[in-house]
Amino acid sequence: MKPSGSRLRQLSRMDIALTAFLGLASLTLYVHTLAPSLLYGDSAEFQTIAYTLGIGHPTGYPVYILFAKLFTLLPIDEVAYRVNLFSALCAALTVGLVYLILRKLGAQILPAIYGALALALTPLFWKHASIAEIYAPSAACLAFILFAVFQWKETKNPRWLFMAGLFGGLSLGIHTIIALAAPAVVIYLACSPLALSGAIAKSKRGEGLRVRVKSALLGAFVGIIIFLSSFLFLDWLDSPAGYYNTVVHPSLSVWSMTPADFDSPFERLAFLYFPPQFKGQFFNAPSDEVISRLKDFAAQASWNLWLALLGFVALFFPRKDSPSRWREAVPLMVGFITFLVFAATYNVYDFYVYYIPAIVVLAVLVGLGVNAIVEVFALIPKLPRFSPVVLGILILIAGIYPSKNIIASAWKERIPPGLEDWEGYFFTSPDARKFEAEHIVKGIEDNAIVFTDWDNTYSFYYVAHVLQGRTEMDFHETFPQDDVTQFADSAVAYIEANIDTRPIYFSERPYQLVNQYKMTRAGSRLFRIERK
C-alpha cells in the first residue's frame, strides 16, 4: 500500500554519532570564545537574576531563569561565567538538532553537516552562544519543535506532538518570539495525512486529526502550566534584584500606574507580557527602514539565500525513495517568513537579534539546497559512484573556506565574531566591569539606594548581591523609558519615604531635584542627596 504522505528518513546510529560530534565540536568552539566574566545591560541582568531568582525585564523569562539557575550551581569559575555557559550549551544543541532535522528531511550526511555548520558559524548566532542571553535557548527550543513534528510525521507517535507542544508552551517563559512558529506547525498538522489510503483513510482521517491536535494541545497546556508556575514562583520570591524592584516599583507613575495597579500576580504578568513601553513598536518600523533591513539581511546571508530557495523548491519534487515533501516545505517557509518579517518590522534598535530564529530555519533550507545539488549531480550518467560524495566534500570545503580566517582569529583571540568594538571590550578586559562596580559599591553603605542607568544597574547588583552578599542595597534605573527624561513623581515619593533612614545616591547629578535636596559628591562617580 503506497503512502499518501511524504516519507521521512529514520535516523541511524551514524546520525546520532555525528549529531554528538557536531554538538561537541560547536560547544568546544563556543566555550573557547565564551565571555569570561560579568557583561553589561541585559546580559548582566541575566547573570544576576539567574542566581538571585528574580523576574527579568519584559517578558520576564521565568523558564529561562530557572534553567539558568541550574548552571549557577556548577562548581566551575564564577556565576557570570556559568550563565554564559548555558547559552553555549543551548547553541550547541541547536546545531546538532539542525543536523537531525536535515537528515530527517532526507538530506545526505555531507549536506546535513553543511547546514549545521552554516548555523554554527553565523556570526550573530555565534556571538549569542558566547554571552548570557535568551536567544540561544530560544533557538534550541525552536529547533526541537521542528524536529519533534518531523519525528512525529515519520513515527506517527503522538508523544512527539506532545513534546512539540510542551516546548511551545515552555517557550513563553524563554522567549515569546518562538510562539510565532505556531501557525507553521498548525499548517503542517492540518495538511499531513495519515499513512493510509482508500476507505480506511477516509474513516480514520477525522479521528487522526483529532488525535494529533489533542496531543499537541495537551503538550502546550502542560508547557503553559509549567511556564505560569515558574512565573508565580519567581513572582512570589520577589527577589530584590528583580525587575519589579529595579525598575517598576519606584517609577510606576511613568506608566500612569499606582501600587494598586501592580499588586496582584496577574497584573504583573500582564505588565510583563503586554508592556506599555513597547506598545506601537510591533510591526511598526517605517517602510523605508524595513526595506533597508531586508536588503542588509539579504547581503549578510549572501549566496545562502539562493541555496535556501533551491532547498525549498527541491522539497516539491519527488525523489527515488520518497514522494514529494511539499508538506515539509510549507511550514519551513512560513516559519522563515514570519520570523523575518517580525524582525524587520519591529521598531527597536536591536531588532537584528530577532533574526536568529529565521537563521535557524534558513540553515535547514540551506542544507536542503546543497543536498539538491548533490542529488542532481548524482543523476548524471556514467559518473563514478563516489562522485556525489566528492562533490559534497568540495561544497562543504567551499562553504567553510571563506570563514577560515574568522574562525582562526576568533580561536586565537578567544573572541566570537560579530562584536562591535565596545562589546569586544568585555572579552579583552573581562573583569573591568566587575572591578568598576566593586570600586563604586565598596564606598557606600550596606543599606544604600542608588539610581543609575540600565547598563550599570545589574553590574552593581551582581557585585553587591551575588559576590558580596550585601542584599540590603537597592539599585534602580533612573529613567526606565527612553522617551521620558522626567524623574517620576512616584520615584520622588519613594525617595521621601527612605531619605531619613537610608543613604540615597545617583550616578549622574539629578538636576531635576536640585531645588528639593542638598547634593554632595560622594567619591568620583556618585552624588548623594540629603534633606536641605
Structure description:
The longest helix is centred in the middle third of the chain and has 40 residues. This protein is elongated. The N terminus is likely disordered. It has 22 helices and 5 strands. The chain folds into 2 domains: 362 residues, no CATH class; 100 residues. A hairpin with a 3-residue loop joins strand 4 and strand 5. It is mostly helical. A 5-stranded mixed β-sheet has the order 2-1-3-5-4.
Q: Main traits of this protein?
A:
532 residues; 2 domains; 5 strands; disordered N terminus
- Provide the domain count: 2
Q: Separation of termini? A: 90 Å
Number of helices: 22
Strand content: under 5%
Spatial strand order of the main sheet: 2-1-3-5-4
Principal-axes shape call: elongated
Summarize the biggest pleated sheet: 5 strands, mixed
Residue-averaged pLDDT, rounded?
91
Helix content: 55-70%
